[in-house]
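Intended use. Records like the one below are meant for learning the mapping from a protein sequence to its folded structure. Do not use them to infer anything beyond what is encoded.
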Amino acid sequence: MGTWDIGPFDNDTAADFANALDDAEPEACEALIRGVLIRTIDATGYLAEAEEAVAAAALIAAQCPEGEPVDTPYGPETPMPVFPDDLRALADEALARIAAGDEAGSVSNWVDQEDWKQWRAMLTRLRAVLAPPPLSFALFDVQP
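Structure written out for the chain above:
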């Protein structure tokens, strides 16, 4: 696999995933993204689809408040459909799984350890966007 930068689509595998999304019908994009997230969450041992899961999470995060658009030439060219809210939790869980379990696989993609640290920081930023907002409700109905 070729990795040329730290962005979610800056590797051959994620760029190929973007091409698959471009080739899919709009209604099939959600299924492709959901599938890669679930397989990453359920994987044991080596996370074979980690790069695709990070790319999928970035596409979901782009639709969240505080999310950054995916504006790389290696990402999908066609606009993505609006994803259902439940994909946020799946994406966050997949990123948590990647961050916790794929250090040896991820670090081998970069010669420079600083690049790996920046990639990990990118995962943290994505997770912060994907995390559901805390529930906000009044504990007591206090009237003046």
